[in-house]
């Protein structure tokens, strides 16, 4: 069941989203060659708790960290570790803030030092794909219009869209209805309505869209070892279109 959000709930989600956005902005300067992904996780947890919010991923279904740090061929849910970032890596940092019972969720991909032209193009296409999806997230459209817009754009650029991991409704639960696919035909699924809140979070691969799971049961990688990137925002549907609540003003 899709739960429409009250004005009070949206206000709290916006407050959480502002902190998530601020953390991502701060990570622009923090992410660099020579730091561990565990350092990033500690940075995220410290930033979120500084604002009296909780890093909601920590403990979620047993997940042990405050963030996911997904490097190069890792599609999503990468574990922070002692791995030291190298010049030329790309890394996606995914985080969720919980504020007075309401969630906000966002992932950004970052270049580590000087990256290859292919990697930079992947980041650019993935970020643009996110906004292509957001553009059609308007009242009266259907949920599948989002995925169709993303897939059409990404495949025209010669990349592929991951099928196994999707966007989702969000609010009092981290994951709610509706499911937001990033691929597929248009004009299907639930109608988009005012006060719906959900994430759009395309994962885009240089090679095949197929994924495999590491033995830890969380870390998803590209089947063919190609690079993967992801950008994600939480948005709320308003009379004036989608409002991104995890973006700096």
Gyration radius, to the nearest Å? 17 Å
Biggest sheet, in brief?
A: 4 strands, antiparallel
Residue fraction in strands:
25-35%
What is the name of the CATH topology?
A: Creatine Amidinohydrolase
Uncertain runs with pLDDT below 50, 5 residues or more? none
Number of helices: 4
Please count the beta strands (DSSP E, at least 2 residues each). Answer: 15
> What structural class do helix, strand and pairing data support?
alpha+beta
Overall residue-averaged pLDDT value: 98
Question: What is the H/E order?
Answer: HHEEEEEHHEEEEEEEEEE
| CATH structural architecture | Alpha-Beta Complex
- The CATH H-level superfamily is Creatinase/methionine aminopeptidase superfamily
Q: What gap, in angstroms, lies between the N and C termini?
A: 31 Å
Number of structural units classed as domains: 1
The CATH C-level name is: Alpha Beta
Shape: globular
Amount of helix: 25-40%
């Amino acid at each position: 069941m899709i739960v429409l959000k009250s004005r009070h709930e949206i206000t709290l989600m916006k407050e959480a989203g502002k902190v998530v956005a601020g953390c991502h902005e701060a990570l622009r300067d923090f992410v660099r060659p020579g730091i561990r992904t565990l350092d990033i996780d500690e940075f995220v947890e410290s930033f979120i708790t500084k604002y009296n919010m909780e890093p909601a991923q920590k403990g979620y279904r047993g997940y042990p960290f405050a963030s996911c740090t997904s490097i190069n061929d890792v599609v999503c849910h990468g574990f922070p570790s002692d791995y030291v970032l190298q010049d030329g890596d790309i890394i996606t940092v995914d985080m969720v803030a919980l504020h007075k019972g309401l969630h906000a969720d966002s992932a950004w991909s970052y270049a580590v030092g000087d990256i290859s032209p292919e990697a930079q193009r992947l980041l650019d296409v993935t970020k643009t794909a996110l906004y292509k999806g957001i553009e059609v997230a308007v009242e009266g459209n259907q949920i599948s219009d989002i995925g169709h817009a993303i897939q059409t754009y990404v495949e025209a650029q010669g990349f592929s869209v991951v099928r196994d991991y999707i966007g989702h409704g969000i609010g009092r639960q981290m994951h709610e209805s509706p499911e937001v696919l990033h691929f597929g035909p248009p004009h299907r699924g639930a109608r988009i309505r005012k006060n719906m809140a959900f994430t759009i979070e395309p994962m885009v691969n240089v090679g095949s869209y197929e994924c495999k799971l590491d033995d830890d049961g969380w870390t998803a990688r590209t089947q063919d070892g190609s690079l993967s990137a992801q950008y994600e925002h939480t948005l709320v549907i308003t009379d004036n279109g989608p409002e991104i609540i995890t973006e700096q003003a």
